[in-house]
Design a protein that fits this description.
Length: about 375
């Protein structure tokens, strides 16, 4: 059956997040962005609303919802601001989800309640200074010595890794060699504050300026053997499956940004005049907005389709890559056109479209670049 309507629970969630984004995020986020400051109070409010626990079972402090609910929340947040949206996306889908999917009962009970409440944040450390697309090239090592993992190496561009409320980073590390000579890569939970775990000052970024991103380094960091997450040697495969889901979330976030561009332009072209008419009366402007709407709509359908396969438990790798590629292109194109429609004001930080423009580019890079999405689609089509 084909039915694209949202059921009442999803719709109610979407409206609640929309109200929060418009009434509480929109008025203040520009200031946080310009000051490059992490919005702790907004994150705490999102925690109280249950957003960080959306797809997790109630027994671990979650809301008992699903991944699509998270996507809807991300779309509505990113319609207003992407820094807040990526903080939620990374906190849930990269910080907490690996523990939820692969953790032992004890690990889940220990870490998830605080992550689900938004009181604490978790991060996901895969990318290294030497490369992100080729995640198997991991150089960070973890050696088992007297019942402890001793971790050495570094990670770059890690979201939510250095806030005052960051409690852990799950890192991939080489823990040995497989019989076929390839690296054995495992995932290990590294609590914040562990001796030898250094968090560099935050990066100066082009966009997502109210979100938290750091380079991390590990020098003889010791954690108990039981901090291994999932099976030894399965770290790479586990992270790839987390990234498949994450791509649907990033697609939803991208659709939100693309929609935000349409929202802002519809408002602006009804007010701004040139040559004696509202600029919205000119067909050149109308066509730009019609194209923006078309891209947003198509991208939304793409992520709904990927999410629906994911929720049914069917393979969704190809659909997730298509959704991420389509939606990040839509976000980039819409933000460029929206900035153009705003003219000089589009280049001023006082209007959100300039922020959307700066925030859109990373969507074509993070959680797999556009080239990587094409590689995945081609592979799923049997091309090697
Ligand atoms: C703000 C921000 C937040 C991030 N948050 C996180 C995080 O929380 N956790 C985390 O682990 N990572 C995070 N990342 C890292 C991000 O996922 C990587 O930057 C991304 O995957 C690309 O890796 P790279 O930067 O090493 O680029 P590279 O892998 O060096 O790629 C460089 C270029 O080469 C292209 N390329 C590479 N291989 C091929 C190929 N085989 N064929 C064709 N083209 C190719 C790429 O598409 C790209 O255009 C974040 C990055 C940013 C900027």
């Amino acid at each position: 059956m084909i039915d694209f309507r949202l059921d009442d629970e999803y719709d109610a969630l979407r409206k609640t997040v929309q109200d929060f984004a418009q009434n509480e995020v929109a008025p203040v986020i520009g200031g946080f962005y310009e000051r490059e400051e992490f919005p702790y109070a907004l994150v705490a409010k999102m925690g109280e609303m249950g957003l960080f626990g959306l797809p997790f079972a109630e027994e671990f402090g979650g809301m008992g919802g699903d991944y699509f609910a998270l996507c809807l929340a991300l779309e509505e947040l990113a319609r207003v601001d992407s820094s807040v949206a990526i903080t939620l996306e990374a906190g849930v889908s990269l910080g907490a989800m690996p523990i939820y999917r692969f953790g032992t009962e004890e690990q889940k009970r220990r870490w998830l309640p605080a992550l689900c409440s938004g009181e604490a944040l978790g991060a996901f450390g895969l990318t290294e200074p030497g490369g992100g697309s080729d995640a198997g090239a991991t150089r960070t090592t973890a050696k088992l010595v007297d019942g402890e993992w001793v971790i050495n190496g570094s990670k770059s561009f890690i979201t939510n890794s250095g806030t005052d409320i960051t409690r852990l980073v799950t890192v991939t590390a080489v823990t040995g060699q497989k019989p076929d000579g390839r690296k054995e890569i495992s995932a290990i939970i590294l609590p914040s504050g562990t001796d030898g775990f250094a968090v560099a000052p935050k990066y100066s970024k082009v966009g997502w300026n109210a979100s938290d991103t750091h380079e991390l380094s590990f020098s003889d960091c010791r954690v108990p053997e039981e901090n291994l997450l999932g099976e030894r040697g399965r770290g790479y495969a586990q992270f790839l499956s987390i990234l498949d889901e994450g791509r649907v979330a990033i697609a939803a976030l991208s659709v939100g940004l693309a929609q935000g561009c349409v929202d802002e332009c519809l408002r602006y072209v009804g007010e701004r005049e040139a040559f004696g008419h509202k600029i919205g009366a000119y067909q050149a402007i109308q066509f730009k907005i019609a194209d923006m709407e078309m891209r947003t709509h198509t991208a939304r359908l793409a992520y709904y389709a990927a999410a629906s396969k994911m929720l049914r438990g069917e393979p969704f790798k190809k659909e997730a890559a298509i959704a991420k590629l389509t939606a990040s292109n839509a976000a980039m194109d819409n933000s460029r056109e929206a900035t153009q429609i705003f003219g000089g004001y589009g280049f001023m930080n006082e209007f959100p479209v300039g922020r959307f423009y700066r925030d859109a580019k990373i969507l074509e890079i993070g959680e797999g670049t556009s080239e990587v999405q094409r590689m995945l689609i081609a592979r799923e089509l049997g091309l090697r």
